[in-house]
């Protein structure tokens, strides 16, 4: 794609995206750039029939409208959105780093307290989202951005979010959510799979995320050979055991505190009333491991 100007910013390399979108890093040469020197710009690429295109535009604008009202250090800030050069775009905060899923794929491991810090900060972002009466519906490592030095952690992507307090805002994807290839990991709570997502559904997804992050990435002291295991070596057999009912969580056999495993188990109970009732409840427990 040729370098285009979006609100005073020139598009550079692609840093992310999905089936209908691409996210670019973009830079302004202005001395006083309105949103800072560097931003991320998500551009919608329209495909399909007129009706399909109209739905994509509606979803894209809805995502921007939801996110633009959120101000929190652990949520990616959306600055503006609109139509530029006949293309729909969202201008948002740029994070110099990667998403948490990509971090998990990297072979090097991290101490438990560092992983808990990342998860705790992401949880604070999710708590703020809930306090603004928004159900995210797609909480997973892919939607948690982490800076290169691990000092910045932010939740992103409100593409399928639900607004339960605004009955006129229809839930566009009532059964939306993510199940990884071959069903290895499902972040989707049972009630969300039935089209009834709630704040508790996000708590379930966050619990699955904690389980995956710790299982895949935690450093095992005094066992260097285990610290050379890749993501799939750590995850595949454990997810199989979990999915066949042989263990409650993937990290069951990991050398981590029992109390931490109990947090994950409670967050991922099948019945919503048995889970933590708020993100703040969960965070109080998680903070003990910082």
What would your notes on this structure say?
It is a single chain. By secondary structure, the chain is α+β, with helices and mostly antiparallel strands. The protein has two domains: 5-93, Phosphorylase Kinase, domain 1; 97-289, Transferase(Phosphotransferase) domain 1 (Transferase(Phosphotransferase), domain 1), CATH 1.10.510.10. 34% of the residues lie in helices and 17% in strands. The protein contains eight helices and nine strands. It has helices at residues 50-68, 100-105, 112-131, 190-193, 199-217, 231-243, 258-267, 279-286; strands at 5-6, 9-17, 21-27, 38-44, 78-84, 87-93, 97-99, 144-147, 153-155. The chain has a six-stranded antiparallel sheet, with helices on one face. A three-stranded antiparallel sheet has the order 7-8-9. A hairpin with a 5-residue loop joins strand 8 (144-147) and strand 9.
Strand order of the largest sheet: 1-2-3-4-6-5
What is the CATH H-level superfamily of the largest domain?
A: Transferase(Phosphotransferase) domain 1
| Helix and strand run | EEEEHEEEHHEEHHHHH
**Overall geometry:** globular
Specify Rg, calculated over alpha carbons. Answer: 19 Å
- The strand count comes to 9
Low-confidence blocks of residues: none
Q: What percentage of amino acids are in beta strands?
A: 15-25%
**CATH architecture title of the largest domain:** Orthogonal Bundle
Largest sheet: 6 strands, antiparallel
Structural class: alpha+beta
Percent helix: 25-40%
* Distance N to C terminus: 44 Å
Can you tell me the CATH topology of the largest domain? Transferase(Phosphotransferase), domain 1
């Amino acid at each position: 794609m040729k370098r285009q100007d979006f609100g005073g910013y020139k598009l550079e390399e692609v840093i992310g995206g999905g089936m209908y979108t691409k996210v670019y890093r973009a830079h302004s040469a202005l001395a006083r750039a309105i949103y800072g020197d560097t931003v991320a710009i998500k551009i919608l690429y329209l495909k399909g029939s007129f009706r399909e295109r109209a739905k994509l535009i509606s979803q894209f604008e809805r995502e921007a409208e939801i996110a633009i009202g959120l101000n929190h250090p652990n949520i990616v800030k959306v600055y503006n959105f609109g139509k530029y050069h006949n293309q729909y775009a969202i201008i948002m905060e740029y994070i110099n780093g990667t998403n948490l899923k990509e971090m998990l794929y990297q072979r090097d491991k991290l101490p438990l307290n560092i992983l808990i810090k990342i998860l705790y900060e992401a949880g604070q972002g999710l708590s703020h989202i809930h306090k603004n009466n928004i159900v995210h519906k797609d909480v997973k490592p892919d939607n948690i951005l982490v800076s290169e030095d691990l000092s910045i952690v932010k939740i992103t992507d409100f593409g399928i979010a639900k607004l339960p307090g605004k009955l006129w805002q229809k839930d566009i994807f009532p059964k939306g959510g993510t199940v990884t290839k071959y069903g290895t990991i499902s972040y989707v709570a049972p009630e969300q799979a039935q089209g009834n997502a709630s704040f508790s559904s996000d708590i379930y997804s966050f619990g699955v995320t904690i389980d995956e992050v710790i299982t895949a990435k935690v450093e095992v002291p005094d066992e260097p050979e285990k610290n050379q295991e890749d993501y799939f070596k750590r995850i595949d057999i454990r997810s199989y055991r979990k999915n066949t009912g042989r263990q409650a969580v993937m990290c069951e056999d990991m050398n981590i505190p029992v109390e931490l495993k109990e947090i994950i188990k409670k967050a991922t109970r099948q019945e919503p009333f048995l889970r933590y009732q708020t993100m703040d409840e969960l965070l109080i427990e998680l903070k003990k491991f910082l």
